[in-house]
Amino acid sequence: MRVLLIEDDRMIGAAVEQALKDAAYAVDWVTDGATAIHAAENEAYELALLDLGLPMTDGRDVLRHLRALGRRLPVIIVTARDGVDDRIDGLDLAAN
Q: Helix (H, G, I), strand (E, B), or coil: what is residue 2?
């Protein structure tokens, strides 16, 4: 399975990337929203792990863009934003 990891924190990203690779996943790790959009438009992924607080383009905007393109890519939001409104917003944007 090929996973797009979208995380700007170097320590978190490195740990998640290594854990996924140890579990035999192919991982492409990007650190900003603009690069995430470009990667998702140009590569075939089976899953995206998305942080919301990203430089250049916010994670919610990345998700909006992917859904506007009609991408059915499953997206799991992985973030420190854990308020009810944040969770509802992510689901409203069609996160999985």
A: strand
Is 50 in contact with 68 (CB distance < 8 Å)?
no
With a cut of 60, say whether residue 87 has pLDDT above it. no
Distance CA 28, CA 32 (A): 12
* Cα distance between residue 41 and residue 70, in whole Å: 11
Tell me the domains of the chain and their CATH numbers: 2-92 (3.40.50.2300)
Give strand pairing partners of 66.
Answer: none
Quote the tokens at residue 23. 């579990």
Distance between alpha carbon 65 and the CA centroid of its chain, in Å? Answer: 12
pLDDT digits (tens, 9 = 90+) for 47-80: 999 998 888 888 889 988 988 888 788 998 887 6
